[in-house]
Amino acid sequence: MSFTTKEQDLNVPQLQFNNMSNYGGVTVAGHDVVVKPWVYKLAYRAASAAQPVSIASSYPNETYHQDFYAPAIRCAPSANETWVQNITIEMARQTRGGGGLSYLSWAGQQHKYPLETYDYTPLDDVSPDASRIFFVTTAGNSSVEYNFTTSYGYWSPTDPTVSQLSVLECLLHNASYSVDSTFQYPGQSHEITISRWINPIAAYNLLDISPEDRDPFVSYLTVMSAFGKLMVGNGFWDHYGSQGTYLSIFNILDIDWENRESLPRQLEQLFQNITLSLLSDENLM
Questions:
Q1: Looking at residue 26, what is its pLDDT?
Q2: Does residue 219 carry a pLDDT above 60?
Q3: 128 CB contacts (<8 Å, ≥6 apart)?
Q4: C-alpha closest to that of 222 among 34, 28, 17
Q5: What DSSP character marks residue 59?
């Protein structure tokens, strides 16, 4: 028995970011981005499954390559050592009576972290250069320690030390995607590569963006907001050994939060999976 390979024209899905109403919109005041429920749903499904949501195919077995522009985040450790020291000490001061914070994430400027403001909005609309999200985890550099004092009487010793925490900063970008998709019923796989980081995207002063450019900007920002909705919040523990979360679902995601070296790439990949999942919803094409 012999088999032949037949080439066919494929109906390859294409994302459309030029109509922001498919993704969400902007409030009347022009300051807040609103997100359609299906964008949140796709973000949650991709994050919880640790892979893109299944995309419909024209044939049981097919392969194709796509190049397109879409939102992506670029993550790196914070370069501001003084600020890393400050937030490490501030989080340590939140540890009292045998409990404390194990995870913290917020969207906004670095000097407005929620330990001061308790602001857990999912989208940074105050940074003028790029919409950003911060992550603080215990996977820091244990060889770096800071001394600090505290007013809590049950500390022992009086002047404790704390190991440096990991502080990551992820910025929203317009990026060039290169994707190879393989469908072999009933499975599918996708190789995603960012071939070029083009420019950062900010939610700052949306009304100053020209009308012809506003739609793709807002569409990108809805994806960032959906990502922030999953990640922003905190994780905590108490002296009984119990652990919990506030807002964030970070603890159910397939991410190694203790791997300081690979964490930036893990977060970037998660966002890319969410972006590719948009191709599964006809509302967005």
A1: 85
A2: yes
A3: 202, 204, 205
A4: 34
A5: S
Grouping H, G, I as helix, E, B as strand and the rest as coil, residue 270 is helix
Residues 163 and 145 sit within 8 Å (Cβ to Cβ)? yes
| Cross-strand bridge partners of residue 237 | 100, 243
Question: Scanning the structure block, which residue is given the tokens 């893990």?
Answer: 266
End-to-end CA distance of the chain: 41
Q: Which CA distances in Å does 57 have to 38, 65, 109, 191?
A: 20, 13, 42, 16
Q: Which two tokens stand for residue 81?
A: 């050592």
The answer to whether residues 43 and 32 touch, using CB atoms and an 8 Å cutoff, is no
Half-sphere exposure of 275 toward its Cβ, with a 13 Å CA cutoff? 30
- At residue 3, the pLDDT reads 53
How far is CA 44 from each of CA 66, 224, 228, rounded to the nearest angstrom? 24, 13, 11
> By the 8 A CB rule, do 146 and 89 touch?
yes
DSSP-derived letter for residue 60 is S
154-190 burial by CB neighbour count: b if 16+ within 10 A, else e?
A: ebeeeebebebbbbbbbbbbbbbbebebebeeeebeb
pLDDT, tens digit (0-9, with 9 covering 90-100), for 18-27: 999 999 988 8
Can you give the pTM of this predicted structure? 0.89
Diameter over CA atoms, the chain? 82
